[in-house]
Specification:
Blueprint: H1 6-12, E1 15-17, E2 24-26, H2 37-45, H3 54-62, E3 67-70, H4 78-87, E4 91-95, H5 99-111, E5 116-119, H6 125-136, E6 142-145, H7 153-158, E7 164-169, H8 189-195, E8 201-205, H9 210-219, E9 226-229, E10 237-243, H10 247-261, E11 264-267, H11 271-283, E12 289-291, H12 297-308, E13 314-317, E14 332-335, H13 342-349, E15 359-365, H14 370-380, H15 384-397, E16 403-404, H16 408-419, H17 426-438, E17 442-446, E18 453-457, H18 473-493, H19 498-506, H20 518-521, H21 533-548, E19 550-554, E20 557-560, H22 564-571, H23 577-581, H24 598-610, E21 614-616, E22 624-626, H25 628-634, H26 671-687, H27 699-708, H28 713-716, H29 724-729, H30 732-744
Parallel strand pairs: 3-8, 3-9, 4-6, 4-7, 5-6, 7-8, 10-15, 11-13, 11-14, 12-13, 14-15
Antiparallel strand pairs: 1-2, 16-18, 17-18, 19-20, 21-22
Helix pairs in contact: 2-4, 3-4, 14-17, 14-18, 15-16, 15-17, 16-17, 21-24, 21-25, 22-24, 26-27, 26-30
This protein binds adenosine-5'-diphosphate and zinc ion.
Length: about 750
């Protein structure tokens, strides 16, 4: 669906489809008849050099190839169509949605001596006709046109006979009906292009999400377009993802960030979470402002003002905080909770370091947070039956004039009462209302008095079954939201450079490791090499385990049944009750990675997820499954290139002794740990009045303990001589000692 990486396309300048001749021809990059665009840049725009990737974009556009350029705001997109317009025959049509900007652009061009005009609804008929006449006479190089002009077929037809050098679409993301800025008029541009005989088309946007890119290409029906994505790197930011187990760790981490970086934003995913964080900071007397959508506009303005003016240095906020912040010296942005998409993360994190100084972005990642996002997706994507129930509730509340005074909460209650169960949240009801509104079933009016708004039916009340949406629309929207969350999780689990990952996600092909993120800092961002030896074997073992613990549904198809925790435990040979109950000790892969230890197996699964060999299902319980690519690897048909975790204790995978079995554990691997355990045992023995050693832990058991370094009692019980009784009464201080040793020696 997506074209090959842009960096390469720009340079190769390969075969393209020439619109004029309708035949394939080869573009020659040394063709001297091509206008000298560098000279034109200086002559017409007064710039001495191109910014990246302006030259490549301009060359592509001038060559007549369909082109999509994605560059951040301020990156210099206008030049990418203005310069081609100046050096080409004919007039360039520029579709732009913002009338105010249109006027500025036309004025700026006129000042440069480039003949340009605009056509939009703010003008008188005479002005519009004047512009049309000038265009027809060939006097103009650029004409800016508002998208709604294309509503009338007659407008497009009136352009017949005009030589159009280029059809440029600015703010092209407006064509994606899933984006924030959808403008239905943009959907007509494809037809306009056809009617105009398909002049070369160039589209520009600052929205770099893969889905928007795909939408632009398909909605404008671009033919093998050259795609350029550039300029989204933030060289002064350091991106970090920290896995945390819960609230306490999050609190510690946020305080650390505040102490170290002073000025920053802590983003929370819900009002409740923001309030909790704020309370916690208040208890510790840490000055800050709180900002969320539940506050009154006046309260929010005040909070924003405090922060932007520098009177407060820390803001705790939901994503409602953002649009107006232009405080350049933000030194850290912390995502306290999981954001819903890579786009949201990057946009919010990107508020750090606007002054160009170094700044830190920190995402605290706790897998449990995913549930909040699942809940949001649920709320944002009501099902058709729910939407119809909300519509019925509005109908029931409507008076004879079709106007209902019913709150969203009451709509949800009424819908739930009708269904006889509590299925619909207020959030779903609100989403249903906005869908009904967007698709012309209802309108929302401000109530003449009192709080709340009125809802009015458009037309007579319909039977619920008449409430329909374009086929697949609701499903597609849900799928997209879910995919965004999945992508964010892939980012969290990714093992390479964070900046490089994000740029790759946006389609910037020539990114390289940043040297500043957590992955780069820990040296784990080298490019992945094809796996071999023990590493490859481990990957195959883990994949077989995931497959074994799934339902087999067909040739090479598996449906997940268990979460990652249970699968990891089974692979490690755990005796956990939940493993035994589920019979996961009887699958052939049980304990297959036992000697590697739990931490390693956990990270190995992360790596499989990151490499797309395994995936976490959606649904109420996240289940771990194998992907088709994972099946290929498992069956030996494919050798993946990927990073996998290094086993604890050094570069090489260390074979740990099979616990429980061997009579002689041999020499302990860490003699120091072993002797510390012996000392501890002797101290315990003295404290307990010198019972015989076999009543405690004999040396052999201590050697096994030192070698296995079990994570918990359950793992320790695999060692012969440690039963449930001793595990409870005797073991805990030994585990503590092991943990302490691991921490001191960087083995944790
Ligand atoms: P965008 O549309 O991508 O937000 P603009 O096209 O408005 O950005 O350009 C932003 C600014 O950068 C403008 O002031 C423009 O004059 C300037 N600019 C664009 N290209 C160059 C260049 N090659 N050299 C110097 N300045 C440039
Ligand atoms: Zn990096």
């Amino acid at each position: 669906m997506f074209p090959p990486p842009p960096g390469r396309q720009g340079r190769i300048f390969g075969k393209f489809f020439s619109k004029e001749s309708g035949k394939r021809r080869l573009s020659d990059p040394f063709d001297m008849s091509r206008p000298d665009i560098a000279k034109a840049l200086a002559a017409h725009f007064g710039h001495t050099s191109f910014r990246k990737p302006q030259r490549e974009v301009v060359e592509s556009v001038v060559s007549g190839r369909d082109t999509l350029a994605i560059m951040p705001t301020g990156g210099g997109k206008s030049l990418c169509y203005q310069l081609p317009a100046v050096v080409s025959d004919g007039v360039a049509l520029v579709v732009s949605p913002l009338i105010a900007l249109m006027k500025d652009q036309v004025d700026a061009l006129s000042k440069k001596g480039i003949p340009a005009a605009m056509i939009n609804s703010s003008q008188s008929w005479a002005e519009q006709k004047g512009a049309m006449d000038a265009m027809r006479s060939g006097a103009l190089k650029l004409v800016y046109i508002a998208p709604e002009r294309f509503r009338a077929q007659s407008f497009t037809r009136s352009l017949a006979g005009v030589k159009i050098s280029l059809f440029a679409v600015d703010e092209a993301h407006c064509i994606s009906q899933w984006g924030h800025d959808f403008r239905p008029d943009y959907m007509r541009l494809r037809e306009a292009l056809e009617t105009l005989g398909r002049p070369p088309c160039a589209a520009f946007t600052a929205t770099a999400t893969p889905e928007v890119k795909g939408d632009i290409i398909s909605q404008l029906d671009m033919r093998s377009p050259a795609v350029f994505v550039s300029g989204f790197a933030r060289p002064n930011l350091s991106f970090n993802v920290t896995q945390v187990s819960g609230r306490a760790e999050k609190d510690a981490k946020t305080r650390e960030l505040i102490a170290k970086f002073k000025t920053g934003i802590i983003y929370c995913s819900t009002r409740k979470s923001a309030e909790d964080v704020s309370k916690g900071l208040a208890l510790d007397s840490i000055p800050h402002v709180l900002y969320h959508g539940g506050m009154t506009p006046a309260q929010r303005d005040e909070a924003q003002d405090e922060f932007v003016s520098g009177r407060a240095d820390v803001a705790v906020a939901t994503n409602a905080f953002g649009m107006g912040i232009d405080r350049p010296d933000i030194r850290f942005v912390c995502h306290h909770d999981l954001p819903g998409s890579v786009e949201a993360f990057y946009q919010e994190a990107g508020r750090a370091g606007r002054d160009g100084g170094p700044a830190r972005c920190e995402m605290l990642f706790s897998y449990a947070d995913k549930r909040v996002q699942d809940f949001f997706i649920e709320g944002a994507n009501p099902r058709i039956a729910e939407i119809r129930a909300v519509y019925s509730a509005i109908c029931a509340a409507a008076g004879s004039d079709g106007t209902a005074s019913i709150s969203i909460d009451d709509m949800a209650d009424a819908a739930n009462a009708a269904a006889g169960r509590k299925a619909l949240s207020s959030m779903s009801a609100a989403s249903a209302v906005s869908l009904l509104k967007k698709h012309g079933f209802i309108e929302r009016l401000d109530a003449p008095s009192g709080p709340g708004r009125l809802t009015r039916l458009i037309g007579p009340a319909l039977p619920p079954s008449h409430i329909v949406f374009p086929p697949g629309m609701l499903e597609e929207k849900r799928r997209r939201d879910e995919q965004k969350l999945k992508d964010l999780l892939r980012f969290a689990y990714s093992r390479g450079c964070r900046q490089e990952w994000i740029l790759g996600y946006f389609g910037e092909a020539d990114a390289s490791p940043c040297g500043r993120c957590d992955r780069c800092a820990s040296g784990r961002a080298e490019p992945a090499a094809p796996l071999s030896g023990e590493a490859l074997e481990d990957v195959r073992k883990a994949l077989s385990g995931i497959a074994r613990m799934s339902f087999k549904t067909g040739r090479r198809e598996w449906a997940p049944r268990f979460g990652r925790d249970r699968i990891a435990k089974s692979l490690c040979g755990s005796r956990d009750a939940r493993i035994l109950e589920a019979g996961l000790d009887r699958v052939s892969t049980y304990g297959i990675l036992k000697e590697r230890g739990k931490a390693y197996v956990g990270s190995l699964i992360d790596a499989l997820l990151d490499a797309g060999l395994a995936e976490i299902s959606d649904g109420e319980y996240p289940l771990l499954g194998i992907t088709p690519k994972g099946v290929e690897v498992m069956l030996g048909g494919l050798v993946p290139s990927m990073d996998i975790p290094k086993p604890a204790g050094g570069g090489r995978v260390r074979a740990r002794p099979a616990a429980g079995g061997s009579a002689d554990a041999g020499e302990p691997e860490y003699p120091e740990l072993y002797s510390r355990l012996v000392e501890l045992r002797n101290a315990v023995r003295r404290a307990r009045g010198n019972p015989p050693i076999y009543a405690l832990f004999p040396n052999q058991v201590l050697k096994n303990l030192a070698n296995l370094r079990p994570a918990d009692a359950e793992e320790a019980m695999k060692i012969k001589g440690i039963g449930p009784q001793k595990a409870q009464t005797l073991l805990p201080p030994f585990l503590d000692e092991i943990r302490k040793f691991e921490r001191e020696n960087g083995l944790a």
